[in-house]
């Protein structure tokens, strides 16, 4: 202002660049496809998985194993509904899913728990507190890292579902540039061995009517 800037001009420029209340996000076919795939998987999870367990209780080691397998199965189902993924050769699909699987586990758990402070909710709606109970200390060390490095930042940024599905797609299709967790440096490497990834990758080879989602998540 002392150098000759007029207050009215500064305010006018602010008003010009400030988004107006009538501003809307233009339709984006890619985002629409991602949101549609997410909605399909969410419906599968809510109709099949959560009703099969005693929800809201503290997770056991068995619950963690079951949840990992369920989440990885849903990951395959999610990818199947992405047209860009369907266009890839099978070897590329399997390679992308293998690399993405660990990140998918932690991203989904983090976003599902975005409204909480010190607990992670798993796919089957059992929970992992950041303070480790007896019997599953490695599991809860991972839970603490998810809370600190993913859930808390997501909450502070007020991440919405559009941003979440876009983040998932980036992590799936650009594995060299996007890595949330290094398996070699976290207890997740040990835990990841509990889930049968190879078996779940075979879902891509099965005809659509050869089995049901309920069979795959039991």
Automatic annotation (TrEMBL):
Domain of life: Eukaryota
Domain spans labelled NR LBD: 26-218
SUPFAM superfamilies the record matches: Nuclear receptor ligand-binding domain
Positions of the UniProt region annotated as Disordered: 1-22
Compositional bias ranges of the Basic and acidic residues kind: 1-18
Pfam families associated with the record: Hormone_recep (PF00104)
PROSITE patterns, alphabetized: NR_LBD (PS51843)
Record flagged with keyword Transcription: yes
InterPro entries linked to this entry: NHR-like_dom_sf, Nucl_hrmn_rcpt_lig-bd, Nuclear_hormone_rcpt_NR2, Nuclear_hrmn_rcpt
Keywords of the record: Receptor, Transcription, Transcription regulation
Record-annotated membrane-spanning stretches: none
Protein name: Ligand-binding domain of nuclear hormone receptor
Organism of this sequence: Oesophagostomum dentatum
